[in-house]
Amino acid sequence: MKYQNTLLFVTRKWLGKGGMQQLSRDLWRGIRETYGDQTRLCVLPWGAGTVLRRGHMHVHLGDVSLVCVGWLWKKRGCRVTIMACGLDVIWKPNWYQWMVRKFLPTMDKVVCISEATAQEVRKRGVCEEKIVVVPCGVWGSSGERSHFDRPACRTDRLSVTRSPIIITVGRLIPRKGQVWFIENVLPKLREMYPDIQYWIVGSGPDEKKVRSLMKYRDGVRLFTRASSHVRDRLLEHADLFVMPNITVEGDMEGFGLVCLEAAAQGVPVAAAQIEGVRDAVREGETGMFFTSGNAEDCVRVIDGMLCDVFCVSRYALEQYDWSSVLQRYRDEVFS
């Protein structure tokens, strides 16, 4: 097998439901469709033998924790690019931060999934000309996960029923804000919409807290083992998607892919204006922002979006379609 003109994609995030895993799978699909037999995939640790081979022309690494592998490839004369997703940049151990600061600036390109991630990369010594900000994407009409086939505008059924359904999708961890939302925002919303329902799709360490709060908060439903099909069915019934992230030191939101996935199904997004979420929502086109941690502002934005018919801009979504995202990779990363 000849490797001289090969694009090798190396990732350690492949199995599971996390955002980094989904990004790896989606990017590999696009790479494979674009470059065909010129590509190779190495999923660590199972594909470690592939990493040891010589002769690859271009190596693209799936996250910053692989930067030492990238440095070894650079020593062999290869072009090496690397994705930066957020948490893989700011992980706290001193030995890890030393490694990032020493080796990340040596990469040919650092592809950041958001401007918030790019800011962290700059702090670690990477020069501006090596930084490329390319967002995550969703698949369009030919994709398997998002179809852009939902109505762009929600019908104004709330004027009749006054029983909206709002939904959050994400791991049950403090920075995702589900507990904060139930404690601080939902009671205020129920004063305005007595029959409002809040559906949460996800699992994680905060599950016990959420279940405890459900005993005292009507209208909260938790779906911990929902498949992607079930999740999409739940989104079909939702009037609004809420991303209630809060600031947690040492734990950042790299992008907010679920905001795109909801908008791609015609569900408008109310999101905390924080970290990488800023890059996942186009205000006034796919959703609206509220101040993170500010319950009154969150209520104001949600009420405004529920009272009006919010139309998700298909043009804005097209900027996040993988066909557009891959063009950025072709022009700015793999060229």
**Within the largest sheet, what's the order of strands?**
2-1-3-4-5-6
Kindly report the name of the CATH homologous superfamily of the largest domain: Glycogen Phosphorylase B
Low-confidence stretches: 141-147, 155-160
Q: Total number of β-strand segments?
A: 12
The domain count comes to 2
Determine the mean pLDDT.
89
Secondary structure layout:
Layout (H helix, E strand, L loop, with lengths): L6 E5 L7 H17 L3 E5 L4 H4 L6 E4 L5 H9 L3 E6 L2 H4 L3 H10 L5 E4 L2 H9 L7 E3 L24 H4 L3 E5 L8 H7 L1 H7 L4 E5 L5 H8 L5 E4 L4 H10 L2 E4 L13 H8 L4 E4 L4 H4 L6 E4 L4 H13 L6 H5 L3 H11 L3
Parallel strand pairs: 1-2, 1-3, 3-4, 4-5, 5-6, 7-8, 7-10, 8-9, 10-11, 11-12
Please tell me about this protein's structure.
There is one protein chain. This protein starts with 6 loop residues before the first strand and ends with a helix. It folds into 2 domains: 7-137 and 321-332, Glycogen Phosphorylase B (Rossmann fold); 158-317, Glycogen Phosphorylase B (Rossmann fold), CATH 3.40.50.2000. The protein is of the alpha/beta class and 335 residues long. The longest helix is centred in the first third of the chain and has 17 residues, at 19-35. Helix content is 39%, strand content 16%. The strands form 2 sheets. The chain has a 6-stranded parallel β-sheet, sandwiched between helices. It has a 6-stranded parallel β-sheet with strand order 9-8-7-10-11-12, sandwiched between helices. It has helices at 19-35, 48-51, 67-75, 87-90, 94-103, 115-123, 158-161, 178-184, 186-192, 207-214, 228-237, 257-264, 277-280, 295-307, 314-318, 322-332, and strands at residues 7-11, 39-43, 58-61, 79-84, 109-112, 131-133, 165-169, 197-201, 220-223, 240-243, 269-272, 287-290.
